[in-house]
């Protein structure tokens, strides 16, 4: 019997407490939680008030050094494909064409002064797949691949999440491929004319035997 | 009991009005609560509940349509009107279609006896309170029709739960209201209100004139939550277990009618609790010395204002509870009804009887 009454008492007090809390929140709705960003010292002190963010109109600023959307500065890319190989989710697609010797001038140099030797007609990043892990960024020798502070890049059509960065149009790419093939054919012909037997490569050295355990 | 003519001047005059054979006055009297329910359900019921629930959860609620989302409800109505009115192929079509109708009629019928002011009451029955309690039970039929007619297991579960719940909670609710009827010595809503009118304002209300009225008051309030299917007694709906309970299959305007009925019932029970314990349309302000606050704030228009405000206050409490408490389990629900509320209502009944005899 005493349990019966204590249960009733517990229900009454807990309901009263709960209703007190909700009423407090109801009256606190005249306040707004501040818009302190995560790097603000007051971030965890914004306890009272509404927390709805009316998103497109209001947005919490992202940190200026944030690392979100991947960007490739294609002018600096040397087409080494390191990023392509490093990416764990295969979201980078690269195609390269070797620049012919007379094109090296047109191909240009990176901002670091390195001579570029590859055209990169296709450099696609599927930002829908990219998990911003940053592995590609760390392997890129010319530091032309990096994350930007842009955090909001949603699209209505998932196809638009494919970002194209290539530095040649399709027609240009075809021309360059043809040119390269011609040059290579030319070189092969010259080589044959010079009389070098094609199969005269020195035999590869035998590998050293693995150490015996 | 025939009420004094001064009590019902407006409604009596209206009901006598007719154009030829057409009883225009009666139609107007019937339309007044309908217009009231519609307006209140749209503004306070739907929009208010959204905002209140949002604020209690630190959200903003609707904001996009109109200033502060004020036109959101209108947009929703337009949307509901456009929706296809689906009747499931294997449903019992007759029951399925009339279910929402019965539900709405059940909550609407009780408005006939609610006094909306000292000069307006649809029907001043001498058994008004009894009628109001009884007519609520029609809701059970509507819910059963909707749940069974849907030919859907969730809907049927919801309906059966609802019947168990409403039938059970009618008992403590009725006994608690009996206490008020005993205090007043009448079942007429208008008379019960008159008993609590006086220059002292709130001091004449049953809740404050006797020491035990708080107990039936609380019991009726809790039971009324269960009768209107409001949280924490919304197990017929139970959207997380039963999808949406007895109205799982309803779409478009039928769904809207079910909700209109729910909001109508919410106001009805709130009005009944105000009439039974908080003086209905009487003003809460007392006359203090020469300051005739009570006299100033009485009259037909003020009366309507006060009862609507009291009703709205209790609806606010219902919403407040809804966003505070989790839903009860079925066994807890029955425990609360049969082992807590019913015995306490009987105790309240006996104590009230003793108090009435000794005064
Ligand atoms: S950040 Fe990671 S996932 Fe994204 S492209 Fe680079 S390696 Fe791939
Ligand atoms: S690692 Fe850098 S330089 Fe190499 S292909 Fe990728 S982006 Fe270009």
UniProtKB/TrEMBL annotation, chain A:
Quick check: keyword Phosphoprotein in the entry? no
Write out the ranges of the annotated region (Disordered). 180-213
Q: Where is the composition biased (Low complexity)?
A: 182-200
Give the matching Pfam families.
Answer: Fer4_7
Q: Which residues form a coiled coil?
A: none
Please give the InterPro entries that the UniProt record associates with this protein: 4Fe4S_Fe-S-bd (IPR017896), 4Fe4S_Fe_S_CS (IPR017900), NADH_quinone_OxRdtase_chainI (IPR010226)
Q: Where is the composition biased (Pro residues)?
A: 201-213
Specify the protein name. Answer: 4Fe-4S ferredoxin iron-sulfur binding domain protein
Source organism per UniProt:
Chlorobaculum parvum (strain DSM 263 / NCIMB 8327)
